[in-house]
Amino acid sequence: AAPISLVLATGKLARRGIVLKEAGALERLAQVDAIVLDKTGTLTEGKPTMTGISALNGAPSSLLRLAAAAEERSRHPFADALREAARRAGLVVPASSAYAAYPGKGIEATVDGRSVAVGNAGFAADRSWTIHRSLHGFAAEREAGGETIVYAFVDDACAGAFALADAVKRTSREAVDDLQRQGIRVLLATGDHPAAAGKAAAMTGIRDVRASLLPEDKAELIRKLQGDGSVVAMAGDGWNDAPALAAADVGIAMGGGTEAALDAGDMTLLRSRLTGISEALLISRLTVRNIR
Ligand code: ADP
Ligand code: MG
Fold this sequence. Notes:
It is a single chain. With 292 residues, the protein is α/β, with parallel strands linked by helices. Helix content is 42%, strand content 24%. It contains 13 helices and 13 strands. The chain has a seven-stranded mixed sheet, with helices on both faces. Strands 3-8-7-6-5-4 form a six-stranded antiparallel sheet. Helix 12 links the parallel strand 12 and strand 13. Magnesium ion binds next to helix 3. Adenosine-5'-diphosphate (ADP) binds at residues 38-40, 71, 74, 76, 78-79, 104-107, 118-120, 148, 150, 190-192, 238, 240. Keywords: ATP-binding, Cell membrane, Copper, Copper transport, Ion transport, Membrane, Metal-binding, Nucleotide-binding, Phosphoprotein, Translocase, Transmembrane, Transmembrane helix, Transport.
């Protein structure tokens, strides 16, 4: 049977909305000296809104209509944002077919008999699509402000860009401060581009930032830190975080996250606030000290 102090600690955590899959996770948590945080949906609310459109030819609303249709089947927060923007604009969004998703890059589908793709610059590069130079100014300005740009391509030709903004959670700054005060090294790891990553890091006091990572790169970062002798926790919400959550010594899933993240994690923060991590860390350290 588990020592009584572990049982008590588990109850204490549960009252704070922190659920452990097994008691062993608490003992590993007490040893953690580095934490990797995902950005979208973990450090930020993960509910981006579309804040601007730059359409190359034709009305911005026609481009939004096509993009929202192509994103119909995607569960990515950007897809939700584009569909929501189309709904608010009162657009009638047509059905789409032949949907394909490219993790960390974008999506593609057939709309009105045309091939419509929405994704980032890396996605465009993979397909040898050129981002039209008249979009460079729009993209640079929005990215400097911490927003994210996704591009739209219709029948392999650049058609425009969308800007998306995602707010940092109110509790994230305090959580990062608490962790750093406890002597924990905090890193930000994201699939988003360096400017958006840098802005979120600056707003929360994180100094070590890794951007433009694919899901497997996040897991590789965890293994690298472990190779350097760290005991590593990883917090994330997306299916794209699942490999890293599984690789970490303690995987921490956000309660509002995807099934894949919840499955891969050792611990769940039901309230999706990162302050739960520093609380859990303190409790784990006190508990393990009592057992030993
Ligand atoms: P994060 O690590 O921040 O959670 P993701 O790996 O989910 O990010 O996505 C990385 C990037 O891939 C996004 O910033 C976006 O540019 C692009 N992307 C992924 N899915 C989509 C989609 N459905 N629509 C548009 N862009 C997408
Ligand atoms: Mg995420």
